[in-house]
Amino acid sequence: MSFKDTVLDMPTLQTRTSLNISDSRLVEQAFKLRNRYGFVISEPPSSINIGHVHDKLKQYLQAHSSIFNFSRKEWRIVPWAFMLSINGNPPLYENEDYIQLLFERIKSKFDTTSPLIQVFLQEYPLGSRWFDLLRNAIHDFVTDSPDIKAITIKQWIDNTQILEKNSHEICAGNIRNAGFQSTFSSFKLTRGLEHSAFASESISYLLADLKSTLSTLDIHAQSQLVSSCLSFFITAEDSLKYPALRVNIADGLLSSFADNHIIPHIKKLLTDFFLNHYNDPRTSAVMWIGVTPTALSVIKSWLVENTMHDFFNLLSHIAKTDPMADKHWKSRKRFWNAYLKKGYIQEAWVALGSSAYSEARNFLQGGRSTYASLSGGQPRHSALIMVINGVLITEWSHSGSFRIWDTSLQRPKLYLSSYRRGNLVNGSDHTGSHSGSERGLWQQRLSSLIHDLTGVSIPRREYMND
After folding, report:
1. Are 198 and 344 part of one and the same domain?
2. pTM to 2 decimals?
3. How far is the first Cα of the chain from the last one, in angstroms, to the nearest whole number?
4. Which of 145, 164, 183 lies at the terminal end of a domain, its last residue?
5. Does a structural domain hold residue 153?
6. What is the C-alpha to C-alpha distance for residues 399 and 329, in angstroms, rounded to an integer?
7. Domain boundary among 231, 248, 278
8. What distance in Å separates the CA atoms of residue 339 and residue 195, rounded to the nearest whole number?
């Protein structure tokens, strides 16, 4: 074979298959180096070891020793001993002189870098008067390190700004823009640091901001952020991931909607979340202790809407087999819907007759556990209990008068688990039949009575038309 033929027979650069860099050992080694020299989260030392190092460290600091005689293992424990409260005593960093002295002694101790950052994020003592001094000392210790092994950590600190002033606010902004998973991954809030004080402060700052801004976002951003929050705040076991932030979560996700419109999809997401994990505030207030009145008013107003709509669904269900119920309630539904749309109904509760109660799962969104049972009357009859500006009103699913309690001491109690018919009938201050529906006779009488008692007024055209 000639030389020319040999050359032509050789594979060219274009025909060769290039190495896949993702499969190369170079990437594998780079990964190992990142793990070795980048920020790495380690298991916290035992309390015994921390206490032992703490006692030695305190002696050195008090004596202003020029040399700290620690083993390599002990040096890695020093950050924990310096920043944790031991036996109820203030952490050593609470002494300004100790901060300066310690960081002069650890300048060449690269192995303390990851533990320093880890325990700082774990404790993140924003309330300390020496917080900024401590943060700056750690920041400068890392960024001024001449050790080539510090390059990866420096890059991470620069990219995340995790040791900058108000870094938890920066983290909160990232969560808002990129979501929880992406942000927690880039900030390396894993392996326990997802429950660190830094993570909690970041989430708290985000939620505080959402109290006034969530409803102002466009619908897409709103939906994404709410979905991200709700999925992140729940564990795989379906419990709250951050129980200490229970109040912050409720205030942050609800308050912004006090005076602003919310689309049905987001309202349902939030309502389902809070009912599942906080319970109904009308019947179980424990999880709602400490939540602001503004946030409580929002969730209660949504639950009023749900209760009213569920009662209307009940009527539709009954009307399929009971024409009399349909006849009675077409006009009543229009009437009470007008007050509901205006936001005048402050409280609403339903007591279900035995037949309706047994069928509730099929047509009521809340299900049987959300409402009361009703005895002493017809099994298919149910009652709606409402409050408008402090005045309590009852209505019925079938023929029956409306009743109003204004000053009577016998007014029914709200949110009981069961009622007898007499509880919702006896002792009322005002009562009236539903005669003259087509001409609006009872509607006008009742509307005028409500206005006289509460000052609330609805135009005739609104309660007479769908």
Report:
1. no
2. 0.85
3. 95
4. 164
5. yes
6. 9
7. 278
8. 45
pLDDT in tens, 285-305: 999 999 999 999 999 999 999
- Is residue 313 located within the same domain as residue 375? yes
In a domain, 21, yes or no: no
Do 305 and 444 share a domain, yes or no? yes
Range of the domain at 155: 47-164
State the average pLDDT over residues 230-257: 96
Based on the domain organization, do 273 and 330 belong to the same domain?
A: no
For residue 175, pLDDT beyond 80: yes
Per residue in 200-217, pLDDT (tens digit) is 999 999 999 999 999 999
pLDDT, tens only, 123-155:
999 999 999 999 999 999 999 988 888 899 999
Whether 337 contacts 464, CB under 8 Å: no
- Is 12 within the bounds of a domain? no
- 138 and 228 belong to one structural domain: no
The count of other CB atoms within 10 Å of the CB of residue 460 is: 12
CA distances from 189 to 55, 195, 363, 432 (A): 30, 8, 44, 64
Determine, yes or no, domain membership for 289: no
- Is residue 176 within 8 A of residue 221, CB to CB? The reply is no
79: tokens are 């950050």
Between helices 246-254 and 264-277, what is the axis angle to 10°? 160
